[in-house]
Fold:
Amino acid sequence: MERAETLDTILQSFARDQLKEDVLPMFYYDKTMAVRIGKRNSPMDALFRYCTVPLTKNAHLLLGHSSCGKSTELHKLKQRLEDAGHPVWMVNANLDMDLFQANCWDVMLNITEGLFKIADGYSIEIPEKTREAVLDYLKSDKETIEEKGKSRSIDVSAGIGAKTPSLQNVLQAFASLKGELKASIATRVSVKEKMERRASEWLSYIIEIADCISNSGNKKQPVLIFVNMDKIQPPDKAFDIFCYSVLAQMPFPIIYTFPISLFYDSRFAAIMDLYEHHLLPMIKVSNIDMSENADGINAIREIVKLRADLKLFDSDALNLLISKTGGVLRHLFNYKLRTRSSCSSRCSHWLFWNTMATGGMNCTR
Structure:
């Protein structure tokens, strides 16, 4: 992805994907936080402090409305933590879990796999005894899973038969089991029952692996970041997952995104004592009295400027577009032409398409 200098390249420059480490230097605008929170402490700075300085809680929930930039800010935080010497692994819940069936055991599995991936990425040795114990734990209903795997051309027992399992063998077994968990209800039930019975044993593996990482050379304690956990469906299921207190008792920092709609639910009080929660506000484009918020509009203009030459836009049309999107960056980048029943919603998307295609236009409806 490159900055657009002509209309021919502008669509690619406004891809809606979250900004990851490889493009952050080009497209990340670092002055939005002051617009979001004023003179208050930044939630991302607070998370950085919690992850780098030993404090009372290691479990954190990041809340924010859809498309406010949580994932992008977490990628930036990952970069900061790695620069400070912390090995970090980011779990994308959209890809690594079935968000319609997710439970706390899925999270536990992904925590363990994430630690193994950190160890593999930094060439950190995990004791053979621990590798063997984890592989043995993953053998649940091996014969049934293998039989199903043959018909689906999936080697679900990859690595389990190795006499001296390597980190790659363990990671292959995790990948196979996670694929089976998405496809087989029987496997999900079996794994859930086994982990409920032997939760303390599984937690001991997590602690052992985390200790190996923390004690390796100049590496500091690992940090895990779960993005897209706020997209769990239905959102209420998040309470069932995060009420499992073991998730809040890890000996290293873990950050989860969390559905902001549940923040206003009385049940949220039940998990407040377990997790530190942090709010990431939207970029304000209007004030309470409905007047324009010039600082917010200018901040979003700067975000656009990083992606494209502003000469490609009519200034008035761009300002109108920004105000119509309400500061939701995903809407701002949504260049697809859509039909809407309401004028304001249709105009906000149709205007962007025509602003890019013609260099600016006036909305007359």
